[in-house]
C-alpha cells in the first residue's frame, strides 16, 4: 500500500498532543522525542525542510522504525529571507543558525494551540555547537521567540531554567538529562537504551548545506546577483557545475544524474541545451533579470557546455547544439571552447556577503534596542502625566 508523508496543512482531523518536538532528523532530536515519550507524553514531531536542509521523505522511516509521529513543513521562504537579512549573523560559512532556530520555533509556536500543545521541545545540547548552543544563544532564542517557560531542551534540561511543563508536573524533570559539550557518550547510551537502528542515525555534523563551503559559495553568488532568488534557484545550486558571467548563470551536468535533475529543474524561462548528435552533458541557462538571453550569451553558454564533452572536443569543426526555451527549440552551431570568462563562484564573494549582512543585522538590533528603551521611557512619562 502506498503511504503518504504527512504534510502540515493536510485536511486530516487534528489530534491533540502534550507537546511538539522539533525533528531535524539528527540523533539529538530523535532522542529528545523518545526521552519524552518514555514519560507517557503524547508528542507530535515537526520536521522543517528547505533547499538547505531537511528530508521529508524520512518521516515514514521514523514512524515505521521508531513509532515517531511527525508532520513536515516547508520553511524555504522564511530561510531565504534570513539569508538576505540575517538578524544574528552567520556561523563559519553561510549558516544563520540562531536565526534558523528562531524561525522554526516561532513557526512551531504558531501551531501550538491548533494541536493543544503545552510546550515545544528541541534537541539542543548546551555547549555542543559554538554559535547556537551556548548559554547566551539559548537564552536569546528563548527571548526572541517569546517562549519563556514553553521551550524545553530535555537533553540539557537540568542545566537550564525550569519550564512551565516541569513546574506543573506534566514533564518529570528528574527523568530529563544534563548533557553538555560536544561529546556523544550520553547520546550513545540513549541509543542503546532505546535501541535506535543505525539507519536513522545521521552524522553529528548535521546535514545543513549552508555549513558546506562549496554550497555556501554558490548560494552567496546567487544572493549577490539576484535580489529575489527563490527556493527553485537555491535547489539548482545543490548539484552539477556552476559558471557565471556577470548576471548570466549556466549550470552544466557532471553525470547522468545531474542531467536528469537539470531537465526536472528547468523552468519555462530557462534555456536547456544538449549536443545534437554527440554524447555529453546537459546545460541549463537561467535568465536572472529578464525572460530572454541575448543570442551571444546563449552561444557562449553552449560553447562552454560542449567543451565538457570528449566527443565534442574530438570533433572537427563546429558542433550542433539543441536549445529549448519554453515551447521553442532551435539548433545552433558553435565552436567547442572552454570559456575563461565564465567563472566558478569563489569563497571571497560569500565572505563579503557575510561581513556586510552581519553588520546590517548588528545595526538593526541596536536600533531595535534603542526603540525598546525609548518605548519604555515614553510609557513611563505617559503614566506620570496621568
TrEMBL record:
InterPro entries found in the cross-reference section: Rossmann-like_a/b/a_fold, ThiI_AANH
Keywords, alphabetical: ATP-binding, Nucleotide-binding
GO molecular function, one term: ATP binding
Ranges of residues in domain Thil AANH: 17-155
A Pfam family assignment: ThiI
PANTHER family given in the database record: THIL AANH DOMAIN-CONTAINING PROTEIN (PTHR11933:SF6), TRNA 5-METHYLAMINOMETHYL-2-THIOURIDYLATE -METHYLTRANSFERASE (PTHR11933)
The protein's name: Thiamine biosynthesis protein (ThiI)
Organism the protein comes from: Carpediemonas membranifera
Lineage: Eukaryota, Metamonada, Carpediemonas-like organisms, Carpediemonas
Amino acid at each position: 500500500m502506498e503511504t503518504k508523508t504527512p504534510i502540515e496543512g493536510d485536511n486530516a482531523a487534528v489530534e491533540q498532543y502534550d507537546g511538539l518536538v522539533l525533528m531535524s532528523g539528527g540523533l539529538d532530536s530523535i532522542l529528545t522525542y523518545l526521552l519524552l515519550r518514555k514519560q507517557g507524553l503524547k508528542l507530535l514531531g515537526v520536521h522543517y525542510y528547505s533547499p538547505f536542509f531537511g528530508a521529508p521523505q524520512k518521516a515514514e522511516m521514523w514512524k515505521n522504525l521508531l513509532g515517531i509521529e511527525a508532520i513536515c513543513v516547508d520553511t524555504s521562504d522564511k530561510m531565504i529571507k534570513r539569508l538576505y537579512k540575517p538578524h544574528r549573523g552567520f556561523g563559519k560559512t553561510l549558516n544563520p543558525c540562531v536565526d534558523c532556530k528562531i524561525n522554526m520555533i516561532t513557526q512551531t509556536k504558531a501551531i501550538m494551540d491548533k494541536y493543544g500543545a503545552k510546550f515545544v521541545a528541541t534537541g539542543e545540547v548546551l555547549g555542543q555547537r559554538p554559535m547556537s548552543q551556548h548559554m547566551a544563544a539559548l537564552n536569546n532564542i528563548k527571548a526572541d521567540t517569546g517562549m519563556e517557560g514553553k521551550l524545553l531542551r530535555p537533553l540539557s534540561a537540568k542545566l537550564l531554567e525550569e519550564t512551565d511543563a516541569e513546574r506543573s508536573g506534566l514533564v518529570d524533570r528528574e527523568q530529563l538529562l544534563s548533557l553538555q559539550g560536544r561529546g556523544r557518550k550520553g547520546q550513545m547510551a540513549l541509543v542503546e537504551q532505546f535501541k535506535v537502528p543505525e539507519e536513522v542515525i545521521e552524522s553529528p555534523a548535521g546535514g545543513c548545506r549552508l555549513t558546506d563551503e562549496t554550497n555556501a559559495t554558490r548560494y552567496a553568488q546567487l544572493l549577490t546577483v539576484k535580489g529575489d532568488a527563490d527556493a527553485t534557484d537555491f535547489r539548482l545550486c545543490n548539484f552539477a557545475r556552476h559558471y557565471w558571467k556577470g548576471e548570466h548563470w549556466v549550470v552544466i551536468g557532471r553525470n547522468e544524474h545531474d542531467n536528469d535533475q537539470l531537465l526536472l529543474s528547468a523552468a519555462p524561462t530557462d534555456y536547456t541545451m544538449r549536443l545534437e548528435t554527440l554524447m555529453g552533458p546537459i546545460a541549463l541557462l537561467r535568465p536572472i533579470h529578464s525572460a530572454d538571453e541575448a543570442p551571444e550569451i546563449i552561444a557562449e553558454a553552449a560553447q562552454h557546455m560542449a567543451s565538457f564533452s570528449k566527443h565534442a572536443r574530438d570533433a572537427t569543426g563546429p558542433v550542433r547544439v539543441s536549445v529549448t526555451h519554453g515551447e521553442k527549440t532551435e539548433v545552433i552551431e558553435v565552436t567547442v571552447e572552454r570559456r575563461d570568462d565564465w567563472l566558478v563562484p569563489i569563497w571571497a564573494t560569500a565572505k563579503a556577503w557575510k561581513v556586510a549582512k552581519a553588520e546590517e543585522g548588528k545595526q538593526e538590533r541596536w536600533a531595535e534596542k534603542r526603540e525598546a528603551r525609548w518605548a519604555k521611557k515614553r510609557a513611563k512619562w505617559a503614566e506620570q502625566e496621568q
